[in-house]
UniProtKB/TrEMBL annotation:
GO MF annotations, alphabetized: NAD+ kinase activity
Function: Involved in the regulation of the intracellular balance of NAD and NADP, and is a key enzyme in the biosynthesis of NADP. Catalyzes specifically the phosphorylation on 2'-hydroxyl of the adenosine moiety of NAD to yield NADP.
Residues noted as binding NAD(+) in the record, renumbered to the chain: D73, G74, R78, N147, E148, D177, T188, A189, Y190, A191, F192, S193
Subcellular locations according to the entry: Cytoplasm
Class of enzymatic activity (EC top level): transferase
Coiled-coil regions listed in the entry: none
Cofactor(s) in the UniProt record: a divalent metal cation
Gene encoding the protein: nadK
Stated family: Belongs to the NAD kinase family.
Entry superkingdom: Bacteria
UniProtKB keywords: ATP-binding, Cytoplasm, Kinase, NAD, NADP, Nucleotide-binding, Transferase
UniProt name for this protein: NAD kinase
Catalysed reactions, as listed in the record: NAD(+) + ATP = ADP + NADP(+) + H(+)
SUPFAM superfamilies given in the database record: NAD kinase/diacylglycerol kinase-like
Length: 297
């Protein structure tokens, strides 16, 4: 039976394309069918044995043993859109700075490919979010997110009024720049910049983080993974913008209601040589483990 891999690359970076060629050749030599999306082929200069898939849809990853994302977090999220619906494991190859989503580093690229070929890896499941927006009794947007779903003001000079319900019960009405609903994976992304807590990825929970809320109570919340959030744009406020993972956006008219809950499908992440999340956190934020004044012992 032929083993298949889908290669998703940030073709705007020379380093990415160079390493994509290396990975493709190594996988082909190991007997893999290597698939590449048609719109990326011209920039990659790959061997003729590579299989071209016409469109960047989940069908591209159908039947794949693994999907490899060559680039930063944006490339990883793009690859996740293809891998998640068909439950394909996803490996992020880190092409630069330390990231939370990437697993393999360029310094160890040969070893990473060998581990993929030998099947020497584990697969973790990351919690996702499903989101639905309704207005006037009809669905106007439906999507999902790995990191976060945000509802933000559509006009820079005007505050957004949002009524937030948790588990079907009213929590608070915020005058704010927006509200972020995040997963533990997304706790180090947009939610973090809004003052939310860092949540270890193994923890199953949902986060709700008000952004610049003009309210006495505007603390970030951590709820059960079974919770649901409802964010209703006040009928007398300005329009809002719904955004999923910073990639998919929709305008929300006053009166629109957004429901966010745990996603039915997780993202399956490949871990080659898993590092403790504490080590990843220290490296990502360059935390001063010896203290700001140095090691005094």
């Amino acid at each position: 039976m032929t083993r298949s891999a889908l290669l998703v690359t940030h073709t705007g970076r020379r380093q990415s394309t160079q390493h994509a060629r290396t990975v493709a050749r190594d996988l082909l030599a190991a007997g893999f069918e290597v698939r590449v999306i048609a719109e990326e082929v011209a920039d990659l200069d790959l061997p003729p044995e590579v299989t071209t898939v016409d469109a960047p849809t989940p069908a591209a990853a159908e039947g794949c043993e693994i999907v490899l994302a060559m680039g930063g977090d944006g490339t990883f999220l793009r690859a996740a859109e293809l891998a998640r619906p068909v439950k394909a494991p996803l490996l992020g190859i880190n092409l630069g700075k330390v990231g939370f989503l990437a697993e393999a580093e360029i310094d160890h690229l040969d070893e990473a490919v060998k581990d993929v070929v030998s099947g020497n890896y584990k697969v973790d499941e990351r919690l996702t979010l499903d989101v639905r927006a309704e207005y006037g009794g009809r669905v106007i947007a439906e999507s999902w997110a790995l990191n976060e779903v945000s509802v933000e003001k559509g006009q820079r000079a005007q505050m957004l009024e949002l009524l937030v319900d948790v588990d079907g019960r009213p929590l608070a009405r915020y005058g704010c720049d927006g509200v972020v609903c995040a997963t533990p994976t997304g706790s180090t992304a947009y939610a973090f910049s809004g003052g939310g807590p860092v949540v270890w990825p193994e923890v199953e929970a949902l986060l709700l983080v008000p952004i610049s809320a003009h309210a006495l109570f505007s603390k970030p919340l951590v709820t059960a993974p079974t919770s649901s959030f409802a964010l209703t744009v006040d009928p007398y406020t300005s329009f809002a913008v719904l955004c999923c993972d910073g990639r998919r956006t929709w305008d929300l008219p006053p009166g629109a209601k957004v429901t966010v809950e745990r996603g039915q499908l997780p993202v399956r992440l490949v871990r080659l040589q898993p590092r403790p999340f504490t080590d990843v956190l220290v490296a990502k934020f360059a935390l001063p483990v010896e203290g700001w004044r140095g090691n005094r012992r």
